Request: fold
Amino acid sequence: MILADVIGTVVSPVQIPVLEGRKLLLLRPVSPDGGSTGQARIGIDTIGAGIGDRVLVIQEGNSSRQILEEPQGAVKTVIVGFVDEVEMAGEIVFDHASP
Amino acid sequence: MFLARVTGRLVATISYAGLEGVPLQWIQPLGEDGKAHGPQLVACTAISSGPGDLVHFVDGREAALALEETFVPVDATIIGYVEQVEIAGSPDLAETRP
Reply:
């Protein structure tokens, strides 16, 4: 699982059936202190996340299919958690309440 | 699942059983700024996309699951056409043609 910031929304009117009706968000992978760590990717939202939120993201097919209850779905990146606080070596490096 | 721009088509007259009739297209993966990120690659397409289109694709084992025949040797498949990407404070990526 990785940490990511939600940076945008993606509108996709034509897509494979398993994605129909699901919200797609553009994600920027980040380190615990918020620096970008890689290429932006598209995740399926399952928690009601929005732009500006820091979230927990799964990047593995079997876990994604289990969460979405789609045993044959071509899905890989799923937003599974909303991050309130990140603590590193006893120090709080991210706090949702005071960004 | 990543953003990409379709840049071209590719024709393979002989392909693995199960991949007959599956369109192959060149795609350029994109970063959050809409600019190229990494090398271009060849992807199957599960939708009707074409050169110039902004799409999203899936890599790895899931690439095969997106196709009709799900046990085929592919590692990237276009799974959706992207009409709009809204990023706070930035122009719509879909409007930014290369």
About this structure: The first strand of chain B starts at residue 2 and ends at 10.
